[in-house]
Amino acid sequence: MRRAILFSAAIAGVAVACMFLVIAAQAAGPILTVDPADMPLRINGVLDGQTNSFSGNVRLTVTGGDADQVHFLASDLRHATKPESMIDRSSVTTVPALISLSDGQPSDVKVTIGNVKRAGDYTGTLHFLLPGQPLTEARTIPLELHVGVKPDIEPVVADQAFQVARCDWPLDCFLAKILLSGSATRDVWHVQLDNQASQPATVTSALAVMHSNRTAATVTSSQVMIGPIKELPANQVSTVPVSIKPDSLLPDRYQGKLRFTVAGLDEPVTINSTLDVRDGPFWALVVILLGIVVGRMARDMETPIAKKQVKLLPRWYDLRPKIDQITDQPARLRMESELQKARTKIDSAEDIEDVVSKFLDNLETESNILIELQNIEAKLETLPEDIQKQVPELIKDARSFLPDEPNKASDKLREITKLVQETEANRDAMMSMDDDGRATVHSMTRSPLRSAGPSLTQSQKALDAANQRQTDRWRRFLAGLSGLQFVTAETRFWFFRPALSVLLLVLLMLLGLQTLYVNSGATFGVGGLYDYLGLFLWGITADVAQRTLLNLPTARASA
Predict the structure, then answer these.
(1) Which distant-in-sequence residues (6+ apart) come within 8 Å of 82 by Cβ?
(2) What integer pLDDT is reported at residue 16 of this predicted model?
(3) Strands 41-47, 99-101: parallel, antiparallel or unpaired by DSSP?
């Protein structure tokens, strides 16, 4: 019983205590609380030239009754590094302007800071008071405002051109440094970015986005590297290195952009770029030199000496097998010596064509006489005895006139031939002669010999006169500078003439292919071989090539 009384008394005491607590709370009034996540209230923004006010939300809750009108007060906001710069308290407002809170219901209040003109970090305080509260009891919230500046980055040069040469060995690089501009052999180029904002800017990435015009190749980060890039200082022009490895690029024109991603910018900063990659100058020089050499060879083929050699050399080849048929050893040795002299005259730049042609005519006449006399001697046994005794003396007389008097030797040969013909006509046994005899007579009565022409003495006089006209040493010296005078007739006839004919024909065909197919087609090898052919034909010139090709003699030599 006693226990029950004590338990009832305890319950009554707790109830009374709770009643007193409620009465005390009602007597104290509503209580305003702030969400801990908004302590302090942080507001961030960026000045972009259009926006100068920034907002943030603070969450308030009132307990112990409704708050029909919550008062708001703000302090001035001062710059963290420049205290003289501040934002006046009148620029700090709330939405709604009249704050009304219901008991136990959290509510977001928007705090707006206007008239922000300078970027930086600002600090201040916000005060919220319930109706009837003094300022000392106000709910205070620290305010932190961070205002950044939108980056304003502009390239100093909007269109950047790079020109590099591919040279992977010392001589080629040396020639490139001499013949091309200094930038062509540079490994590192530079572009400039102007940060016009009052705050530093950070480049988060940089990339060359370029595509070739004709080879369909793209530039990779290992071929064109940008950076490293440090922070771009405020109100300064920064130089950014661009490393190019031309040896890893195909010759072509690459077009595109250098692309810089900057923190705080929605769009990247770009520089329109063109990258021209060419081969080193070594092989270009070689091809031009070959073109010039071939052009000189082609021009030399049209000089009088070249035409003389090409025209007279076939006759020289015709004479060589005839002289080999001569069985008289002394006569043969003498003719071989004369043939070698003829070859020297053909190669010589001093002997004119007419003199050499007459010299060859005399050799041909003399060789024909010797061969005819030789044939008569070979058939003496088939002739009558009286003729066999008479003819050898006549043959000896004919040979004695050679080489100085070929006309008399020719007359003597005609006398021998007439004697044999008359003997054959008077003999009734002609029909009974064997085949060898008839062949002998036939050989003696065939077509008349070529006129012997002037004597060798006369030819020598004409040659001396020609040499006299060309004794001027300066003239010969200048003639030697103008062409390849050391080239022999055999080289011209057997090598230069056919080689130039084939080479020039092929080159002109390829040039036509370039004009009609390569240049008029889609794309092809960035010029490739045809670029070098253009240089080659620049050295020759198409006009010289075509004229030489059309004017080359068509005479053929017989071996």
Answers:
(1) 118, 120
(2) 56
(3) unpaired
Secondary structure class of 477 (helix, strand, coil): helix
What are the boundaries of each domain within the chain? 27-149, 153-279, 284-303+483-559, 328-478
- Strand pairing class (252-262; 203-212): antiparallel
Distance CA 9, CA 237 (A): 86
- Name beta bridge partners: 165: 278
The CA distance from 149 to 47, in Å, is 5
Q: Which of 121-125, 241-245, 470-474 has the lowest mean pLDDT?
A: 470-474
Residues pairing with 78 in the sheet: 86, 123
**Ramachandran assignment for 129, one of left (phi > 0), alpha (psi -120 to 50 degrees), beta (any other):** beta
- In the three-class reduction of DSSP (H, G, I as helix; E, B as strand; rest coil), residue 45 is classed as strand
Task: Label residue 55 by pLDDT band (50, 70, 90).
Answer: very high
384-396 mean pLDDT: 75
pLDDT in tens, 138-153: 899 999 999 888 888 9
Rounded mean pLDDT, 487-498: 66
Residue 205 amino acid letter: S
- Give the CATH number of domain 27-149; options: 1.10.3720.10, 2.60.40.10, 3.40.640.10, 3.40.190.10: 2.60.40.10
More confident residue, 342 or 123: 123
Distance (Å) of CA 554 to CA 495, 515, 549:
14, 30, 11
The CA-atom distances, in angstroms, between 456 and each of 282, 445, 453, 459 are 56, 27, 9, 5
Question: Amino acid identity, residue 317?
Answer: Y
Q: Are 153 and 195 in contact (CB under 8 A)?
A: yes
271-310 pLDDT tens trace: 999 998 888 777 777 776 677 667 667 777 777 887 888 7
Say if CB 125 and CB 156 are below 8 A apart: no
Distances (CA, A) of 427 to 187, 387, 415, 418, 420: 104, 12, 19, 14, 11
**CATH fold of 153-279, please?**
Immunoglobulin-like (2.60.40)
Is a pLDDT exceeding 80 seen at residue 371? Answer: yes
List, in sequence order, the alpha helices (H) in 492-541: 497-513, 529-540
